[in-house]
Amino acid sequence: MTAAPTATSAAETSAVPLLDLRGIGKSFPGVRALHEVKFSLQPGEVHALMGENGAGKSTLMKIIAGVYRKDEGEIRVSGQPQDIGSPTAAQQLGIGIVHQELNLMNHLSCAHNIFIGREPRKLGGLLLDEERINQGAQKLFDRLRLRLDPRTRVGELSVARQQMVEIAKALSFESRVLIMDEPTAALNNAEIDDLFTIIRQLRDEGVGIVYISHKMDEIQRIADRVTILRDGQYIDTVPAASTPMERIIALMVGRELAQTTPDIPDTSGQPVLLEARNIRRGRMVQDVSLTLRAGEIVGLAGLMGAGRTELARAIFGADARDGGEILVRGVKQNIRSPQDAVRAGIGYLSEDRKHFGLALGMDVQANTGLADMAQFVRGGFWLDEGKLAKTATDMVQRLRIKTPGIQQNVRLLSGGNQQKVVIAKWLVRDCDILFFDEPTRGIDIGAKAEIYRLLQDLAAQGRAIVVISSELPEVLRLSHRVLVMCEGRLTGEIPGALATQENIMRLATLRAA
Amino acid sequence: MDTAAPSKLKRLLGADARQKLLAFASLLALIAIFGALKPDAFLTEENVVGILQATSVNGVLAVACTFVIITAGIDLSVGVLMTFCSVMAGVFMVNWGLPMAVGVPGAIAVGALMGCASGLTITKLRVPPFIATLGLMMLLKGLSLIITGTRPIYFSDIEGFDAIALGTLIPGLPNGVLVFALVAGVSAIVLNKTLLGRYTFALGSNEEAVRLSGVNVDRWKIIVYAYSGAVCGIAGLMMASRLNSAQPALGQGYELDAIAAVVIGGTSLAGGVGTILGTVIGAFIMSVLVNGLRILSVAQEWQMVLTGLIIILAVYTDNLRRKRQH
Amino acid sequence: MDTAAPSKLKRLLGADARQKLLAFASLLALIAIFGALKPDAFLTEENVVGILQATSVNGVLAVACTFVIITAGIDLSVGVLMTFCSVMAGVFMVNWGLPMAVGVPGAIAVGALMGCASGLTITKLRVPPFIATLGLMMLLKGLSLIITGTRPIYFSDIEGFDAIALGTLIPGLPNGVLVFALVAGVSAIVLNKTLLGRYTFALGSNEEAVRLSGVNVDRWKIIVYAYSGAVCGIAGLMMASRLNSAQPALGQGYELDAIAAVVIGGTSLAGGVGTILGTVIGAFIMSVLVNGLRILSVAQEWQMVLTGLIIILAVYTDNLRRKRQH
Amino acid sequence: AEPYIPLISKGFQHQFWQAVKAGAEKAGADYKVKVTFEGPETEQQVDKQMDMLTAALAKKPAAIGFAALDSKAAIPLLKKAQAEKIPVIAFDSGVDSPIPVTTATTDNVAAAGLAADKMAALIGGEGEVAVVAHDQTSTTGVGRRDGFVNRIKAKYPKIKVVDIQYGGGDHLKSAEIAKTLLLAHPKLKGIFGTNEGSAVGVGKGVKEAGKKVVIIGYDSGKDQKAMIMDGTIAGAITQNPVGIGYKTVEAAVKALKGEKLPKIIDTGFYWYDKTNMTDPKIAAVLYD
Ligand SMILES: Nc1ncnc2c1ncn2[C@@H]1O[C@H](COP(=O)(O)OP(=O)(O)OP(=O)(O)O)[C@@H](O)[C@H]1O
Ligand SMILES: Nc1ncnc2c1ncn2[C@@H]1O[C@H](COP(=O)(O)OP(=O)(O)OP(=O)(O)O)[C@@H](O)[C@H]1O
Ligand SMILES: [Mg+2]
Ligand SMILES: [Mg+2]
Questions:
Q1: Predicted TM-score (pTM) of this structure
Q2: How far apart are CA D220 and CA D283, in angstroms?
């Protein structure tokens, strides 16, 4: 599409921004996603892009990466005006991207996923050179300190590892501009540290990095400058080091956020809602027992692959259990499918909204009602559209879901707003026992606070809540009690008041002898 | 945050309806072309009734397929199942001498039962729909021949049976067309206004998400296939009534016409999207095309070539329309 | 965290291969059953060669389908395209008198070209594969009849043409079987060792991801369909050589047998998964079944019923095997 | 054990082939031989017929009955039968080869010619007629179509065949075709349906359209006979399918005994209408 970038001297490059965007506008049917947005990126800079869910961050990045076409505005790459018409064109301009949503081919190996489109070949281009492909991937993994066989099929990996593969792929392009759209949403602290080491390395090599995240602490750790978007509009660009977090948050949400300090209620006298005894499933869940009382929020912490998701899925009946029993309010329940679980009053909000949470292709309204259609049926089978619409509208307002209407296809919502729709679905179902698996993944700071308040309300109303989260501050802030898992076993329990990052991490790495 | 609901009217018509109007336009275009080329034969009342009648069986089968296709499944057995139901109608009424009041619902029940069998194979044995219904197709084809001894069963002695398709409650309009209209109307309501319809779309949209929402996915899928099977049963009765006989060797190949009608009507084979109105229009596009080419005495070979081209074209223009909406 | 690489041997066999061995076991079971019931007829050299020969055309078509199905597409035109290629072989060699050295590659090129046409319709016109290939099927059926004037073209005067399928380079084994083996072998290499194969899997796994990786998705998809079309061309030559004639009305329905073989062989209609070896075994399961039932003189109606049941069963047990691996 | 005689036919689902099968089985019972009968699903599947013949030969039969879809394609297999000294009896349309010891057949072309003569007589020797054929490539379909059309061309210059359409022997499709024919050709005086499904379908279509044209049918079957009785169909040609089947097996038995056989066993064809349907000679060759 365009010629290779012209060679420029080091001095010139530092003067000319790698990326210079002006007056960018983009509309989707019913949504003006971007309006008059400007953005620039210098070589050797980490530039954070911040904003609430649906602010337009991903849309802006997709325009740079050639996925969407801008409606208006100008893009300059190294000073040259460019019309980036396709992902290939972006690649040729030296722009690499880690998308917010995973874009992997599950049936292919990690190595092939990384080198798709650029496979080394042998025998005059006739055959694939598997060896070089695998070696190349191994090198990238080593750099990321990722212990993973490049020949493993991507579909067999956990979300976190898939995310790491995506990052490895983006690195492999050796781009001059690297865009990372919420790369750490699925990662734990150790992995984030490794990633940051690499980002700093790249930065020192002169690569420009656009970094999107909703985790405020990361911004302070890694970013040089911060650009803030709100409702598709450019708000401001500020230096990261000298700007207080409160100020950035205020710019993002356009209002001051009240910090809620959790008070830990005494739930020891409350009735036991759920008792899971000796739950087993394969290697990932080995003989786990837990008890949940009405009114408590239990944090379930652990490293990636600790088996938290598997435990929740096993209790929920999503996967077959190898053993163990489940009692709800003291009554033994034979839970063999999600249907049984929901009937017994157990809900589970999956960590993977795209595959397990949403009926993509249906509208907000339909998704909201999906877990409890019985509520919206008259005479056994007639849909009560009116009631459904009312409920959906309520939820949109209550959770501040940014959508042009309840009839908007959820596929077209921003990632964070999709997550809110999944939460709405479970709020409608109103289960007594709720497992939230990474409930704030990809959710902005304002909404996060709302969700925390929501979880606290739910608990206060006498429900039992389990929050699985890889963000320790979140676990610490919410939990009345913290359970820690490591390698499929429960390694300890810490009362909320005594929990610290340190003692949680100690239990999370407590391997079996 | 603009959550303002679209106006009532716009919702009633909606993007879908607008698209359907456009699909309707290509049907009208087809009619206009044939009408212009041979007005005295094509646009006669007689031929219009003929087209309506010719559409009805394929139309009913297409309606049956629509449900299954919206769940992202496919049903290759519809044609042969139709035949099997007509054979069973013959067994009930002719061989066993049961009255029509039993035989007719009986044949529909057989259809529903076979639909259940597909559904069970797909859900419980985890056989993909293509293979499950292909297997059922072969099986039913054989069974129809075995049950009848490869001879047609004649309904000549069943008083009033021919009225199902050929009677004229509305003067000049064969009842078969009414049955088609009724089946389409009821199915449109089922698809849009009932729980079954909602789950049909949801299954096609993301089955795993539906399952994790605590819905008994298997049960609803079986019900969808059973509903589709029952509709095939109705098609079987229409066919038997019109031919006054159950022809055991008929039916294979009808599924492709039905599926083509569904897809021309804008239903996506990937699931989650579709309307009955679109299917009805799709079925009419197919039969107007065949009828028009026959009226023009186009040689059969060329009929095939043109039908192939126009099916592709119809789906292509449908895509164009959708794109323009973005 | 288990990053230990699987042993070389295990990788060579792998989960896939293990599964294939089991599929092979059910083929052997079928052979054992028929062999036990009628050893003097079923296990004769004559019959074994007959089975090999009967498998070869469907097997080659199934290989063609395998590529398309792995991309999560479907090709309904394979049977009719085969016929069209045999007709074109007749046109080249009999009607125009071109030598075999031109006519044979010519027929294969025609197949590739028609595959391209499917691919272009699917990618550029955004018509789903089911409809694109259904349309092409109708179109080619008509064209074959038009070109031949609905009469077979006989190759009697083409010296050596019958050797393609009927000659015996290896004494006792018809060349058609060798051609099948060759096509399967080459296709297995293409699928596993080349860029085309890699993209075939990638497209079926997540087309959008491939597109976002900057790969020209359309081009590769067209190449896949062209490859499949070329293989259909080879099938057309085998068929023409075996029948010593191009039969213009043959071919419809063969696509279902081919697809069934592919799915029985463990290739997923959802795309991303599949092997040529599995397809070959699937094709043999189908033909051993038909042959065995014939040898046992099972009535044709019952053959249909049993084939239907066994296809479902074969895919079911395949699922069982896969599940057990987890 | 009883000698085994498989019959490889062109089809098995049509009534015609079922009648052949019935005749063959009757002869099997009479002569105490084991008879099986099979044919491909459509008359285009030449290769499937080859596979059937291969499997039949593998069963070491005493003799084989064979109705070739394409005789040239079958020659290698027939040679093999000859080499193994298995007598081959051709039936229905003949096999274009010297290998079969005899052929039990009727002449489709001549029979359809008779249909043309009857049509001409019934419409008064002039006007437009059309053909609804069951197939445009099989020998039966082509023979009957061409027999009819060529006789009209040769003998009746004032009659014009205005359209030939194919309904695959499917009743419903044939009925739809008949209705459009009537509309496209308002002056149409007669339609020839080339097999049972075509004839009955045409009858239904004409009835539904409420028109009156001369319909000539082919083969028999309950519906067709009823339509002839009520005057919808003027009359039909019937071959003697039961006879074909019977004679084929009978000839095979004779060949096994080494008896000499004529080159052709003509089982004949007949015109039947309301007037002669109950005639025992006709009734014997009709089937339901
Ligand atoms: N393809 C699309 N069609 C219609 N609307 C879209 C599309 N993509 C994004 N939008 C809308 O554009 C707006 C901006 O979305 P975008 O994904 O850029 O948000 P974001 O800032 O990345 O949010 P998040 O933090 O939740 O990821 C949202 O309102 C979203 O609903
Ligand atoms: N579909 C799958 N197939 C194979 N292995 C899987 C699959 N899903 C997860 N795993 C593996 O199971 C292990 C446990 O994953 P799980 O998601 O339960 O962990 P977790 O504690 O919830 O961690 P995370 O923070 O990643 O959600 C991981 O090592 C992962 O590789
Ligand atoms: Mg985003
Ligand atoms: Mg998890």
A1: 0.87
A2: 10
